[in-house]
Amino acid sequence: MAFVRLLTIASVLLAAAPVLAQNPPAPNAPAPAPGPTSPSDPSATDTTPTGTAAPSPPQTAPTPPPPVPAPATQSAEEKKAAEKLKREQAATACQSQSPDCDWMATLSSLERSSIRRAIEARGYVIEPSPWGKTIGTVNVYNEDVFSEKNWLRFFNYFHYTTRESTVRKDLVVEPGEVYSQEIVDETARHLRDPVFSSVIAIVPVKSKTDGAVDLLVVTRDIWSLRLNTQYTFQQGSLTNLSTSLSENNFLGYRTLVAGTVLMDQGTLALGPLLLDKNLVGKHYEFRAAASTIINRDKFFNGDWATEGSTSSVRLTKTLWRLSEAWGANISFAHRFAIERSYLGLGPRPVYCPDGATSCMFPTLSQAKMLPTGEVFDYRYRNRSYSTSASATRQWGSALKQQVAFGWNFDALAYSVRDSEFAGSAEQYAAFKNTILPVSENNSAPFVEYSFFQPRYKTRRNVQTYDLAEDLRSGASFDVSYGLGLEAWGSTSNFQRGGISAGYTLGFAQDASATISASYATRYQTSEFRDNTASSNVRIVTPSIGGYGRFVAEASVATRWNDRVTRFYFIGSDNGLRGYDINEFFGKRLASTQLEYRTTPIPIWVFRAGGVVFGEAGAAADTVGQLRIRPDAGFGVRALVPQTSRELFRFDLAFPLDGRSPTPHFIAGFQSDF
Description:
globular, three-stranded mixed β-sheet, mainly beta
């Protein structure tokens, strides 16, 4: 294990610089469904409707094995392995409702520290056997961002700690109920929001009333008044930047108010954002954002002229608990913008030979050899509106079923101005035929049926460090159908639908294996158009000796009979980290990634660790043209729990396809997959 030690020590040294970064909500991206999710892990994502949290089912566990006696002298690795074994034994005892249940041992070091401070401040005593007792009082203890006894406590004066009443409005469990670990776990998942909290821990405590048990709910805020920043630095350039000056916990009500800047390779978008996940305490989520779009290159040359705007407004009646029967949603969005595509650090070239009826997409090296007058930038104008309204009915217990019905309306308009295109009339027509999406109105009522099994467990150190992550296991299924007719406003008659299914197996305390697949299509003019299909397999191994774990993922995707040319892309931060941005593209995609992720080391306010990874993937227009490209590298991960649940990420990757092994450096946020 000497290699693991060296990797982890290097991780700590390299990760000790950044402290104040954080991942804010992007101002103009589609709003994600609330609730704890992991952006790139289907097995860890709650796919219930917006705002739903779900509990673990009762489990019958075997009698826990006797503790393994520790040797008189333990190395750091042996202590880490012993700590992991102790947590597993404690979790087994509590699941089996053993009188030997040690609630504190089931928690992470961060959670234990918060619980200890709450007990010391309030004088509570943990109840080891709460089962079958009536809940008397639910006690809420809100910790400051900086709770440890050090000079950082000074910064708490600039943070408004979440109000106790705000937390109480989000509790699923209520006084008077018989203690249920499933409902307690559901409450923890519902409160565990990466925007507002770093620690959520709930333990039973002794009640002054005979035959009753009280609950202690401990929360620890994330620093709310700050300059949030998320970025991606690759190929020597800052390709993406999301930053905002925000108050994430306005007056302690868990309301986010922000002024945001979102930068990609072509534009800057600036504007306000408002997010309230529990409007007027009635479990309505309200989100509103607007922005002005400025050309990035012109901006840095002193030209602030706008080239578009975006806005979105959404109000949702959330299915915030499993017992909730009805949910609803209404939304509106607009986007006036110039859409661009990039290959590496420059615009994607489009090759339109004079006299041809369609264009082609050369690589950068090929584009340099083509006549200048026949190569154009991938760019067009988008002027679109969309609105939708829906309602959802939920029922079931062991199998949660949902039926959603509603209406979507989209007004889509795409164009290329004559003044912005330097080619001939024939090239202009070929460019539009190849590049432009179809301008149309889509007005379609829809119905959707889905189900999932509400089996949940808590694990740590997969997507983040030491903080609780929610894994849903079991089967899931979703099918939808929409019908568009000219009679109610569509440009043409069509039908569209999709189907997806998946299964997640949780095993060995904190490991999982997930398989999923999906298909979507549009039936129009007597043929199936815009077909897409994909499949994904993801495996997370158990922690190996307390040192770390392997995480692997493999994906394939295909599309066919598109109404306009569309591709899958791979390269750099979207897979194959050792290659250029979007270097490989086509209608077929195959990729696989494997990482060894070390267990984090706590050091002051940091949690730090490292990864070693290998990847292989390809994209092309046909399966026969796929040429698998490998790469390998290593990286550093770091977390500051007081400021974010998202990891800092620093990766150095080397291409292994025979070219000069020039390393690619990527810095950003979140685990890569």
